[in-house]
Amino acid sequence: MSATATTTTTWTIDQAHSLIEFAAKHMMFTTVKGRFTGFSGTITEHTQDQSLSSVNVTIDTASVSTGDAKRDGHLGSADFLNAEQYPQAMFVSKRVEALGGDRYRVIGDLTLAGVTREIVLDAELQGQGVNPYGKTVAGVSATTAIKRSDFGLNWNVALEAGGVLVSDQVKFALEIQAVKQD
């Protein structure tokens, strides 16, 4: 391989050591958090040109978990994620922007409930090392926020005192550990 050859490294998300969490306001003033327990994905690192790196993540929408079975059932219903009709949400990056240091902006398409919109993840490499099994792993933290209404997720209840039951904005926080593939 020549010195100018393109090299890529593929990393696989380790679900057991990763977290995809979300938070929304309930009744306009209480933050309710949940997570998705089923997901998979890869990160392809382009070593010569980080902008050509890519991230692909698939989330099992039925794996939504907030610690309340009734709420989880409602979130999986046609009022929200419609997990029966849309069993997967997907994020496919279009480009990665290096911001300096270990910070990156990952721009890509999120498909949720059959609707695709561009979103931006603010990401930071937390470090890397070798795990007890001899595998190289890396940690990445990322955040973003979406508007539910952009994805056709419009269910809500007007509150007597004003406002709505569930905020339109949903914040996401990802803590990812990825394993370097040989």
Task: Name the descriptors.
11 strands; Lipocalin; mainly beta; 182 residues
Task: Give an overview in words.
The structure is a single chain. The chain has an 8-stranded antiparallel β-barrel. It has one helix spanning 69-76; strands at 8-13, 19-26, 30-36, 39-46, 54-60, 64-65, 88-100, 103-112, 115-130, 136-147, 166-180. It has one domain (8-180): Beta Barrel (Lipocalin), CATH 2.40.128.110. With 182 residues, it is mainly β. It is built from 1 helix and 11 strands, in the order ββββββαβββββ. The protein starts with 7 loop residues before the first strand and ends with a strand.
Short synopsis of the structure:
This protein is mainly beta and 182 residues long.
Number of domains: 1
CATH superfamily: Lipid/polyisoprenoid-binding, YceI-like
Q: Within the largest sheet, what's the order of strands? A: 1-4-5-7-8-9-10-11
CATH topology: Lipocalin
Q: Helices, strands, pairings?
A:
Elements: E1 8-13, E2 19-26, E3 30-36, E4 39-46, E5 54-60, E6 64-65, H1 69-76, E7 88-100, E8 103-112, E9 115-130, E10 136-147, E11 166-180
Antiparallel strand pairs: 1-4, 1-11, 2-3, 2-11, 3-6, 4-5, 5-7, 7-8, 8-9, 9-10, 10-11
